[in-house]
């Protein structure tokens, strides 16, 4: 269990690293360069999917309440004391943003993606910290 979650956490770190490399790029660059915009959208999507996958894996392994939809995952993690409620609220918004990326991609406003890049990467960092702390705290027989 620990290895699978740790591997997903490692992938999330990679995706966040790629996003950090894009941070600070002028909005105009994303507007004019389809490769840059594509990278932004893809790594945002992959990072959020990793957050969902990690949460789902923890829920499954710990036999927690099953989510009816992806937006329930952060709440379940908070109920179990794995992440704080304040972070759960931000992750829920993140998952809503993922739904825009996946389902309304043709209509999504680039400025929303850009603002997310410039202001919300710390949510990923905080999530990764809590998941890593939770993994470290597991008793050896549960790892």
CATH class: Mainly Alpha
Strand content: under 5%
CATH-defined architecture: Up-down Bundle
Q: Give a count of the beta strands, DSSP E runs of length 2 or more.
A: 0
- The helix count comes to 7
Annotated CATH homologous superfamily: bsu32300-like
What is the H/E order? HHHHHHH
Mean pLDDT: 93
Based on CA atoms alone, the radius of gyration comes out at 16 Å
- Please identify the structural class as seen in this structure: mainly alpha
Coarse shape: elongated
User: Which stretches are poorly predicted, pLDDT < 50 over at least 5 residues?
Assistant: none
User: Major sheet, described briefly?
Assistant: none
Number of spatially distinct domains: 1
N/C terminus separation: 6 Å
Helix percentage range? over 70%
CATH topology: Four Helix Bundle (Hemerythrin (Met), subunit A)
Topology readout:
Layout (H helix, E strand, L loop, with lengths): L1 H21 L4 H6 L1 H28 L11 H7 L5 H19 L6 H10 L1 H17 L6
Helix pairs in contact: 1-3, 1-7, 3-4, 3-5, 3-6, 4-5
